[in-house]
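This protein record is not my work; I was only asked to verify it. Where you disagree with what is written, explain briefly why. This is what I was given:
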Amino acid sequence: MDPTPHASLDAARHAAARDDLPTWIADFLRSPGSDNAALAATLCDPPRYWAGPVLLPIDRLHRLAGPPDQPTLDRFDEEDLDTVEEMNDSLDQGWEPPPALVSYRDDQLVVEDGNHRLESLRQAGHDQAWAVVGFETATDRDRFIAHLDESAVLDSR
């Protein structure tokens, strides 16, 4: 499903190991298929503090979609459903989707990028998904990491 090598969970893991998730996020969001340089700029400037990849329960993720100046999508349209179906086919062939990009806001995990991937995983029967989580402060990030329990796993590979 991903034509670019940096659009993968392994690439996110390697970036995390190098303490370079911001670069991975920017490259991923600017890559073909995502084509979302505006979101890359929003998530990387001002700098955020990142954790991940983290395995999170899908039902803990607030799956909102759409840019700030447009209404939030409450459900997928026909094109979105086609995208999810293509991803389902790729999952059946062994594709491991890149992690969702999530922001920690007001004690909630809000999906910034990855709604289609999450829906595809949900339809395939998964109850957890990999995510990279952004925080406004290092304190919030460190508190989140310290409170990870059996419902979330910080990737240490």
